[in-house]
Amino acid sequence: MAFRTVVISSHSKIEYSLNYFVFRTIDGVKRIHLDEISTVIFETTNISITSSALVEMLKRKINIIFCDEKHNPFGQLVSLYGAHNSPKRIKEQISWTETNKGVVWQEIVRNKIRGQYKVLTKFGRDITKTILLENYFKEVDFNDITNREGHAAKIYFNFLYHEGFSRTEDCNINLILNYGYSLILSLVSRAIVAAGYLTQLGIHHKNDFNEFNFACDLMEPFRPYVDIYAKRLENETENIKDKIKEILNEEIPINGQTHTFINAINIYCNSVFDALNKGDANLIKFPESYDI
After folding, report:
1. DSSP code, position 221
2. Beta bridge partners of residue 258, listed in sequence order
């Protein structure tokens, strides 16, 4: 079972040889069996990689993330067809009814707000505000047409971090949030493609210029895990990104069992696909705790 997250942050040459991921640096040669790797993060642009290495990683559905010159996640490499029956899956995706999408989005938003409520209580925030979030959780309606998600987010961020906090601020918290959310987006995108669906066709997000509309939809209940990391690390000054990557090693309860973060995302995403195909939002398996 794949379990390793490989981060390459120095000048390297990457090759494929006999089922091994081989990278050469000035310090020598290292090998990792490809079946052990779940995610590879190319954190520097000073890397040479063979096409055979990329193709073999794609065959194994390894999550491949490329960072820019500032070492921030910038792009992801996914296969064109993640499953043998991709045409069938895409037809299913196109045929999902507005009713099915609306009830699924309602449950996704409800569980995102539920997670935010648990995070605020975890850090002992103002009880009146947590009660407000609890009320928003109960008020989410079909397709969240009253935008309880947006109202909850304003309260949530202001009281988790500080009054007047904005996601546009140039600060440590937003650096952590942006980096962490990018990691989750890539994992959700990987799960979507691996199941044979398209990341472009969302159920709520429908931006013509967003390649990851569907992934943006599905990632919402996992955002609070990153928010916890941001709260813990907001005053850190060293090795912040290395510490954020540790989120991939967390174990969380889902579907009555404890799973690795990556496996939990796969379980959740597959349950959402079932819910959309069968028109039953009760089939969705959400994270059961935010105690990390």
Report:
1. G
2. 253
The Cα angle at residue 191 between residues 51 and 100, in degrees rounded to 5 = 140
pLDDT tens sequence for the chain (292 residues): 677 889 898 889 999 999 999 989 888 899 999 999 989 999 989 999 999 999 999 999 899 999 988 888 888 988 877 788 999 999 999 999 999 999 999 999 999 999 999 999 888 766 676 788 889 999 999 999 999 999 999 989 998 998 889 999 888 999 999 999 999 999 999 999 999 999 999 999 999 999 999 999 999 999 999 999 999 999 888 888 889 999 998 999 999 999 999 999 999 999 999 999 999 999 999 999 988 8
- Extract the tokens encoding 185: 């987006």
Edge-first strand listing for the sheet containing 47-49: 28-33, 20-25, 12-17, 47-49
Contact 48, 11 (CB under 8 A): no
Token couple for 258: 């404890």
